[in-house]
Predict the 3D structure of the following.
Amino acid sequence: MRLVVGLTAAVVSAGALAAAAAVSGIPADLRRTVDEHYSGRMQAIVDEESGEVRTFSAPAAMYRKVDINGDRLPDWRVDYEKAENASLFCGTGGCLQQLYLARPDGGFDLVLNTNLRLFRMSKVRGEPVLDLDFHGSTCGEAGFVECPRSYGWNSPLGRYIERPTSKGLTWLSGGPRQLVEDDPSAFPPAVRAEIERQTAICANAGSRVSEGGVPANDLPDLNGDGVRDWVVGSQYGFCDRGDDQQAGAFLPIVILASRDGGFKPAWEAMDASWGVDLGAPARLVTLEGEHCGITQEVCTRVLWSWDGERFVRP
């Protein structure tokens, strides 16, 4: 499918005029932010065809007013499936979806920015809830396998956090998934130190961390002290020599639990099939058995316990 890069001046449909009018109701700062991202992807096609530098504006159909946190300020959803050339923003993990939360000062915070196969906003007992479906790899599965996750808005944290699905499922295979990339400079010092340690493992092997770097995100409170914990690494982390070959073993998955006013390593595994059960209390779980992470039916779930310093097998 070829990209349509502009409208012929002599042919401006009533639909195009209506779209232009709709865009005028979208805050200018938000439009500029979205258009910058939109143009970057669209320009890639123009570069291949002519090299001409163009400026693109996201169609009005991509925008929709939503209510994220119930404060009556107009928030916005930007649906890239409705882009002029949606294939630039979509893949096997679905299409890019963004949510922008309105601030009282008139600005916006990006609180969701990821590709999704299912996106549904609703309210459960008056609380805003997102029901989503990710690429199967998020759950440690083959890409085509469903990976449903639900999130609720947390006002004190100012973001979405994981919650049981609308069907009551509490199991997060592969651990939680953040909806927007965090600023690494805001990570706790112990988390940054673990990222540096894993990066050094690859450097010492004459290679580099695989594409995307060393992932890190916070977890539900796993040790029962009321503070969210952290995980660094994933099942897919390895050292890349730059010739499509892995250099050595996979990088470890490390959980850092809150303790003594900070965070300390409390569990480490290599290439593990693991997850979090959101039950009360939340628990660290590993899957053990043949083909774990692909066919969980043949796996045994091991619920780890907190001994005050580390997570231990029962």
Q: What stands out?
A: The first strand starts at residue 63 and ends at 66.
